[in-house]
Amino acid sequence: MLKAVKDMILILDPKVAAGGETYNQLMAHLSRLPNIELRIHHEQGAEKSVTEIYLIGNTAALSVEDMRALPGVDHVVRVSEEYRVVGRHKGDERSTSFEYKGVSFGQDTLNVFAGLCAVDTPEHVGQMMRALRDHGQACTRMGAYKPRTSPYSFQGHGAKCLPYVFDLAGKYDIKVIAMEVTHESHIEEIRAALEATGSPVGVMLQIGTRNTQNFELLKFVGRQREFPVLLKRGFGITLDESLNAAEYLASEGNRKVVFGLRGMKTSIGDPHRNFVDFAHVPVVKRLTRMPVCIDPSHSVGQRAYAPDRLLDILHVTAQGVIAGANMILVDFHPDPSRALVDGPQALTLRELPHFLEDVALVRETYEKRVRLAARAAERRDEPVEVKV
Ligand code: PEP
Ligand code: MN
Questions:
Q1: Which single residue of 95, 120, 341, 384 has CA 20 to 30 Å from 46?
Q2: Is the model's pLDDT at 209 over the cut of 70?
């Protein structure tokens, strides 16, 4: 079989401004290349802006050296057709992180998003957020639009709860809320509610496991660049198919994508709700530049204790964190017996400090493991780099 023709990305010198002379000359030159389509992506970062020019098509005839020598080009990456934008390619120095509302999301950081699976009352939202603030947390999860198996189950309060959720987030210094959307109209509702409340908080749009391959929703969410996205892995499709779903978002323009593991639907995982797939944390980090989130609550789905007095949810969280997870999405509730969705898997506010301390312990050990691996590679005189 013929090997897929590889595309190329030219990453411009940050000093080269779009519309300037060097830029225009470069674009004029590139647009004369035969059988090559150009796609331009500008990304405004916190410190610098990056312009990438994708050369798509017959790039086999072009040499990396010639392209690198063009005025205005900083470096050149040849990319495989797979995951052109979110992928990690050979010699790829592109960033693996992004900032949103002062919070850094990357393959080297860890953020906890503890919160309500579904918003029920302003009291519970307030109690949850106050506990998070009191324990130094700046992020949370709050479900307003709930995809449910049965049409008769509570579907979430939708747009009507957004004003109090956003107001309370402002009150308790919450910076980012992860919130699932199941339809493009939800993004308009979120935008309108943020505007009406004076934008006291940021929203990370969550695409749930049932919508991982809802391509029209992916395209719509990918075309907006205001909100970052948490894309959950599809519950019954291959990892490759789910990573392609992330590529849908990024190829439409939104690069601020976190990839979420939440377990796979199969009876092989019994008695857990889903078969825990956190062994894929390092795999996703190797194949792509996306930060990786784990959702221990929807993976395990129950509050069962092991004989060591640790909840399965804590064990599974630790498995993801020890493997380098960058975000934890986890269900808490001030009164799980009154939760309208997924009460049986919620942790309580009294368990929050224990949970956070356990996560910190494991994270510290993960960081030590990374330093140990770097020292070991140095002793073997191997370059410390990701092999792709
Ligand atoms: C959720 O996080 O609330 C949720 C419904 O998760 P998933 O899409 O992974 O089932
Ligand atoms: Mn849930």
A1: 384
A2: yes
